[in-house]
Amino acid sequence: MVTKVWVLVALLSLACCSVPVAGQDFSASFYETLGFYIRLAEQKPIDWNYTLYLRHVTGEVQEPCYSQSAQLNTDMTAAKEYAITMLDSSGKFHPSGLFEGQWNDFGSFKGCRDRVKYAEDMPADMKPMYCIVVWEGIPPELAGGNTVFAQGLCVPNTCSDSEVGLLATTGLLGIKSMPSWTVAGLFCQREEEYSSFDTGAIVAICVIAIILLMLLIGTLYEFIINVSYTEEKMKSIVSSKTGRVFLSFSVYSNTKKVFNTYQPPGQLPALHGIRVISTLWIIYGHTDFFADNTLTTNRREKNEWYSQWWYFIRGSMDLSVDTFLLLSALLVSYLFMKQLKKNGGSFTGKDLLLHYLHRYWRLTPVYAFLIMIFVCLTLYMGTGPVWASPSNIAMSNMRGCQSWMWTNLLYINNWFGDCFGWAWYLGVDMQLYVIAPGLLVLLYKFPKLGLSFIMILLTGSMMATGLIYHFLVNQVGGEQYFSAVYANTFTRAGPYMVGLLLGYILFKTDRKVPNTLRTKALMLAGWFGAAAVAVLFVAAPEYIGGRPYAVYDSAAWRAFDRTMFSCAVAWVVFACSVGYGGIITEFLSWSGWVPLSRLTYTAYLVHPIVMHVYTMSLKTPLFYSATNWWFYFIAYSFMAFLCGFVASIMVEFPFFGLEKLIFPQRRGRESSKASNNVANEGHDNQALELQLPEQAGSFPDKLVNGEGNEQLAGAVPKNKEQFDNKV
Q: Which among 128, 400, 567, 663 could bridge 419 via Cys, Cβ 3.0 to 4.6 Å?
């Protein structure tokens, strides 16, 4: 009995090893707790007949697993320290909060993995292993929205996953909750799987090491030439190809580019705010989406959270993607028209090739780099009860990348495979970008014909969306909404066509409208109309149709919602661009948006990785509350932009610098020949080429300050006088 007391003292004090306690007086509750553990071990409902049948008749349970499991059970009843600790680390069925959905008990992952191994009476050949067993058969009347009970088990690592499932069913391992329950799923954490890096991880680490070395060399190079040489000599050095290569990797220069907030005259500054807000909107929606990939203790309350008045932010979050399609097309159209004007309407095959090459170069390096990080290194970023579980979305994406990563690099990943799943947008945007030059050349040379083609595609996109939704998605056993509609290039073309038209309108009007009373009345009416459309398609679906979001089952609604919402955003951009945005223009054009706007592409690419790592490494289930979810959103947003900044400094901005050395300048995009008319046509060259390059980037069309000048040193004007001098 004294030995048992000492064991329990060590257990309850969370000591790493047994500590003798002499002359210690124990409370009555101490002995009650000790008795509880002993009775728990003695009264385990074990089906010995089935256990022996599995061992000696079918052979499904091998001798090493059976003998250590039987020894563990015996040592539990003898109150040995390691056995009691393993029992304590296993989940139990405690009927509490079942109506709210609390059908899980993870036990103690850390207790099983870290504490047990330090017990003095631990057998030399016994090593603990943590498993999650998912039981089915729970009563639906009491489930609170759940369908299974998840239980953590601390078991000997000599058992395979199948053996753990069988012996858990017999009650020998852990404590079986109900006799009628059966194992629906099981996953065991094996330390040896992550104890050393595999080949892919080693290659990824080497690539990162090379990049870090280049960053160090580039930064030291810039420091040395600034300290050691005169200004004239320094200009000579930085204008050489060698100097420009090294400076492309300078952390100091690239960081200045990121955080420079100067906005040259003639820019479209409202796009900064729209871009950042849309990215934050996506992150908020994914905060909930990725949380659904793990367990929640109050599932019933979580399932009812649509009753919150602000749920529309989550419910309509995917419309933010249409905002980016709109902005991407707007910038492509506006820049392309300016290029055609400077070239006298000429657009050759070489121009087209450079048009595609520049885009591919700007998007792909950091994209491929983050895919490499995700596929090769994510497995080594954490541990937890459900870490690297095969059922996790992250794991299915990693497996998909082994076969389908080439589709991402060709930007057809929205049609094939399941690698880096959230990057489907890049595939859609790139495919629309490929067809844009043909439409824009027509629109420039034959406006009526080009407008007709764009309107046909816009109308066809809406009709196709409605028809596909009605005949394929809404049918019993129909196609999945994501593959059939959500990530379909043609059903997403509507907002892109609206963006092409908006860019053409801004080009033709030179971002000016008559300053008349009639214009003011029309602009005011436009604001009311845009606000009404935005409210209708963003907030109203929660209240239309008798139940929240019932209207989403309507093919007619699905046919119009994305294109109409993009029209509302297009109005905001147009009004702010022509000087009728008022306080909204001031808000969206705030200089504080500018650095974040440059990081939205990488923040979008990296934020699901951050979410996967966090949710997979949770040691306990999540507890849903509105406050918790908002704090998760804030934390995710901070980490997304922080990691996005690191990715931009390591890969994105260096490759922007190398782009000028590798590819010839496109005709009509020469940054040194900015026009100087009243409307700041230099926006296309110095300001717009620096700030709004035609890339898919924020997600695609993001601002990249300092990329238009032939010399990296001094590329960014510090004030209006310097900008005017450059022009």
A: 400
